Write the structure tokens for this entry.
Amino acid sequence: MELLTTNNVWMMICTALVFFMHLGFAFLEIGLTRQKNTINILFKNIFIITIGLLLYCLVGFNLMYPGEFNGFLGFAGIGLDSPLTAEGALDLTYNEGYTYWTDFLFQGMFAATAATIVSGAVAERMKIVPFMIFTIFYVGLVYPIAGSWKWGGGFLQTLETPFYDFAGSTLVHSVGGWAAIIAVWLLGSRIGKFKDGKPQAIPGHNIPLATAGVLVLWLGWFGFNGGSVLSADPGLTSLVLVTTCLAAAAGGVVAMLVSTAMYKNLDLTMFLNGILGGLVGITAGADQMSPTDAIIIGAVAGVIIVLAVRFIDSLRLDDPVGAIAVHLVCGIWGTLAVGIFGELAGVDQFISQLIGVGSYAVFCIVTAFIIIFTLKKTIGIRVSEKEEIEGLDAHEHGMDAYPDFRLNEH
């Protein structure tokens, strides 16, 4: 019983840390965008976590962990079951390490993260109502179905060499990243982002907040990866925290060096996104890597971030916060890295990782396209030019995030 209590307390602490990441995402997004859209972004982030938990309770958790199912789609019923025995005591047949309630809450915090990734990519020009509808379908149905393929014991878990994704480089980050790239493509770029085909910088209004957001996310990742051990095992949890930290540090330093070499300026936003890229990159194999492996994986992610941001700009895709480069491209890299480095490295594992990446790519691209394209053709997804220029806060919310600091526009 003492071990159950220890494990359960650790899992609850990690749940709180992952919840705290939503503050980090909010800070990062508002910091890297303009002040006239601050309330809009905060509103979306609050909506994602609240509706995400409700949907995960009602349908998501039992879609993701359906028990016996065909490996592709299963559903264990509406709502949560009571994990109590007939005598009213806690039913410990569910899991030896933690309770049913703790498991639900920890997994529920992950579910909302996928939509948050999309929120940053579509910032400053997407209508709020279509975004909310998209969130309901993506968090309520797409994410848990995708999650069941691996974490729910689905077909990727039953491959001869099982696909491996420790804490969600693919299952969380790429799932959000694939939707983000479809949304950005269907939305189009912000006014003024591309001039004569060349990308123009649209500076964020509060880089100190963005920096705070990244540090909060880094802290939250201790729970994201540390909790994914699913116990308080001292050897494994401490290794996971070390590999997580080292990959983040390497990602930041290398992104800073590469961007400085390429652009001849010390760009703090590249430094910050390099840290996040390192974190996303290590997430698939944080429990399988040595510290040196983690540094290499983070360093490669740091290079990838700078090149991916440039490549996405060259495609005329406008991603205000770099979400696609961080979560999608580094998510793919981290997933494939499991087959290259660490305890599981090998050709068979690498092939399984490719199968996983490809499976999620097809499913997420198709579902995101259906949802967003349908919204585009029915109620529209893009705000008007006037609304975009004057800011979504005023038009969508009738409020101002900084009323005492309103710019004099006359």
User: Anything to note?
Assistant: Residues 122 and 184 are 6 Å apart (CA to CA). The first helix runs from residue 2 to 31.
